[in-house]
Design brief:
Layout lengths: L2 H23 L7 H21 L3 E9 L2 E9 L2 E9 L14 H17 L5 E12 L2 E11 L5
Parallel strand pairs: 3-4
Antiparallel strand pairs: 1-2, 2-3, 4-5
Length: 153
């Protein structure tokens, strides 16, 4: 089993503690929602460019069903690749992928189930996570393939 997958699973279990620590340490940090949204949008753009450069065909971005959203839906080598993008200004307190909770995974799986039915996808499906962290003028991108499994698909 993939080491990053195992670490992601461990992080999901301890996520509650990590979020509490991050919240307490960042209380004095002035961040606006606009800054947060802008960074998230930039991270998703970088993730799309990264996937495109790796030969993925981007099918949809920000695909919605009800209140659920899939960040990036791509295709490569006959696989539907549903990618959750997590962008953070720093990984000092928590790696971006650690912010993916069990609830978030359920939401991604449910949205993917709808996507598959809507577009009559007949191939294989996998779930990836891309974390994006600014480093000076560049970005560090970590791509975790097969980050989690679904009992539905």
């Amino acid at each position: 089993m993939n080491e990053k997958y195992i670490n992601l699973q461990k992080n999901l279990i301890t996520n509650q503690v990590g979020v509490q620590k991050q919240t307490k340490k960042n209380q004095n940090k002035p961040k606006t929602m606009a800054d947060h949204n802008e960074l998230g949008e930039l991270g998703e753009q970088r993730a799309q460019a990264y996937l495109h450069a790796k030969g993925y065909k981007i099918r949809h971005t920000k695909w919605r069903t009800g209140k659920l959203e899939l960040d990036i839906v791509a295709e490569k080598d006959g696989w539907l690749v549903v990618t959750e993008v997590k962008t953070r200004s720093t990984d000092t307190f928590e790696a971006p992928e650690e912010a993916i909770t069990n609830r978030k995974i359920r939401n991604i799986i449910n949205a993917t189930h709808e996507y598959i039915h809507t577009f009559d996808w007949q191939g294989y499906t996998r779930f990836d996570v891309i974390s994006v962290i600014p480093e000076g003028q560049n970005f560090r991108i970590d791509h975790i393939e097969d980050a989690f499994l679904s009992p539905l698909i």
